[in-house]
Amino acid sequence: MKKSIPVSNLKHTWPEQLTVRLTSLRHWAEPAWATLCGVLASGYLTPKLGEQGQLQLALLLTLVNLGWGTLWAILSSTNWKQSLTLWQNWDSSIPLPTLPYARADSPAWLISRRLGELLQWWREAVWPELAPAIVALLAALVLSLVLSIYLGADILLLTIAALALMELGIRNNDEQGNPHPQWDSLIAITLPWITGHTTFTSPPPPHSIGLALAFAIARASTWRPGSRTSLLPAIAAQTLAAAMLIVLQHPLAAGCLLLLVIPQLLLWPHVREQDTEIYAKYTWPWLTAAMGITAWAIRGQ
Fold first, then answer.
1. Section 230-243 average pLDDT
2. Does residue 185 contact residue 220 with C-beta atoms inside 8 Å?
3. Dist. CA 301–CA 293, nearest whole Å
4. How many alpha carbons fall within 13 Å on the CB side of residue 286?
5. How would you class 73 by CB atoms within 10 Å of its CB: exposed for 0-12, middle for 13-18, buried for 19 or more?
6. Which of 205-209, 218-222, 226-230 has the highest mean pLDDT?
7. Is 31 within 8 Å of 65 (Cβ atoms)?
8. Which of 8, 182, 194, 289 has its CA at 20 to 30 Å from residue 45's CA atom?
9. Residue 278 parent element (H or E)
10. What SS3 class is residue 203?
């Protein structure tokens, strides 16, 4: 019989990754701002917002940040693959009572044995290492579902869509376990924008979704730029957003977006592999301003 792999000898880096993400101001600010931009684009965010609207907005921000944000941070920063790899070769089992008259190697005996292996694997390889992540994950999931049900069927469907995107996103993590910028931006920018728009009016029109996708692409390109060439999609996406505003008859807002691109171009000489975080830090305010201007320009349209 093979011996189970000693879990204590395996190194885990996920607590550090999770702590870094959850303590990052940008991790919480980006989805919240994208949500507010979606609400603004819907035309509902006005000084006349009533008490019911304020409650909905507060619950929506709670859903996007504490619900989806926590779920995504845990799913994308936890080393789930390591425990699943252990299960493939797991051969230690908890003795369980078999069904009466079940012979050795019978289906009932095999089911009892595999169930015992599953329980032993959970007790030795999963729960001791991942208990905090699992508890927090379940709490965030329950919070997300409860708030989604309260906010309506459309938001519940968007929550299910968010979970599907998260599952696809963690399958494309890099070798260090970090989420891919494109998936991270879809969950942090595009989905909150759509949800903010949907909560107060109806699903956003195609041009609003297109603008949200453009800003997600721009954000993803500035998140981990490896070279100046890799930043071209960020500039192109914001230029495309400006072109869409011209088509929608908002030339002044389009001009503002193009002006906001200039400071980002001036930072290009500083783009080196060791300066990626610095570049993302200094370009984010300009991208944030561009999102707000765009949402204001298309409000109610």
1. 88
2. yes
3. 14
4. 22
5. buried
6. 205-209
7. yes
8. 182
9. helix 276-297
10. coil
Distance CA 94, CA 120 (A): 6
Neighbour count for residue 146 (Cβ, 10 Å): 13
| Dihedral angle computed from the Cα positions of residues 45, 50, 55 and 61, in that order, rounded to the nearest 10 degrees | 10
Q: What is the pLDDT of residues 24-80, one digit of tens each?
A: 777 788 999 999 999 999 988 887 788 888 899 999 999 999 899 889 888 887 777
User: Rounded distance, CA 169 to CA 20, Å?
Assistant: 19
- SS3 of 111-162: the string is HHHHHHHHHHHHHHHHHHHHHHHHHHHHHHHHHHHHHHHHHCHHHHHHHHHH
Count other Cβ atoms within 10 Å, centred on residue 280.
Answer: 18
Separation CA 24–CA 207 (nearest Å): 31
The residue among 217, 221, 263 whose CA lies nearest residue 240 is 217
The three-state secondary structure class of 299 is coil
Q: How far is the first Cα of the chain from the last one, in angstroms, to the nearest whole number? A: 68
Residue 286: which of 237, 213, 224 has the closest Cα? 237
pLDDT score at 243: 95
- What is the rounded average pLDDT of the residues 127-151? 88
What is the token pair recorded at 23?
A: 């303590």
Query: How far is CA 169 from each of CA 19, 125, 183, 266, rounded to the nearest angstrom?
Result: 19, 24, 5, 32
CA distance 114 to 90: 10
Going by C-alpha positions, the residue among 67, 79, 85, 84 that lies closest to residue 31 is 67
In terms of Cβ atoms closer than 10 Å to its own Cβ (0-12, 13-18, 19+), residue 191 is buried
Contact in structure between 169 and 179 (CB atoms under 8 Å): yes
- pTM for the model: 0.82
Q: CA-CA distance, 142 to 131, in Å (whole number)? A: 17
